[in-house]
Amino acid sequence: MSGWTEFVAAFAVFLLSHAIPARPAVRARLVGALGERGFLIAYSSESLLVLTWLIVATERAPFVELWPFETWQMWVPNLALPLACQFAAFGIGAANPLSFGGNPRTPFNPHHPGVVGIVRHPLLWAIGLWAGAHVVPNGDLAHVLLFGFFAMIAVIGMLIIDRRKRRQLGAERWAELAARTSFWPFAALISGRFRPQTWRISSLRLCIGLAAWLSLLLLHPLVIGVSPLP
């Protein structure tokens, strides 16, 4: 494939590979055939393969400069990624009935929301920060489309989930659960709506987030072929 053909094809396959399995009827049939665990393994593997192809196709796409590269731009992802990794580390498996990625078996206390008091959608913000920060030092059309798409999906996803959860839980119950949380990171903390009595930070999750960030930093030159450091 030449020109933009591969990039467009990879983008289309990526969108379809996520949209089709998410349809309730399709998902039910796949789970029935593979089991819940088998479906998740197959879906995750397929998503990783298609994402890899999309990244490769982006690198092969014609270079169309939208703004020139400056060394300072590399500081944007380097400052954003440590926070994104911590959001992901603390958000995965946390008690959070207001977003995805939470553990439904863990009780949620709206008076002590934990990481949800810092940011209501920690996993989507992790994706949004990663994608949005990478737009800055990658000012060519293909990369702006790629990272801009993921940033846009993260923001739209948060808005959709808020609306869906408010409908599912009822406006009054949703307001009760979300009272000490915020859409924007740290907004509830800054405004005083979330005032933790004590700070009980999980050392394990903090180390997981740190390890994830260091892994991305060290593997970036090997996998992407470019050092992320200025």
What's this, in brief?
This protein is mainly alpha-helical.
How do the strands and helices of this protein lay out in sequence?
Blueprint: H1 5-22, H2 24-60, H3 75-91, H4 115-118, H5 122-135, H6 141-169, H7 171-178, H8 187-191, H9 203-223
Helix pairs in contact: 1-2, 3-5, 3-9, 5-6, 6-7
List keywords for this structure.
globular; 230 residues; mainly alpha
Percent range for helical residues? Answer: 55-70%
Task: Classify the secondary structure makeup into a structural class.
Answer: mainly alpha
Range of strand content: under 5%
Mean pLDDT: 91
**H/E series, N to C?**
HHHHHHHHH
Number of strands: 0
Radius of gyration: 19 Å
Q: Unreliable stretches, pLDDT < 50, 5 or more residues?
A: none
Distance between the termini: 33 Å
Task: Indicate the overall shape.
Answer: globular
Main pleated sheet: none
Give the number of helices: 9
Describe the structure.
- Helix content is 67%, strand content 0%.
- It has 230 residues and is an all-alpha fold.
- Helix 1 (5-22) runs antiparallel to helix 2.
- The radius of gyration is 19 Å and the shape is globular.
- The model has no long low-confidence stretch (mean pLDDT 91).
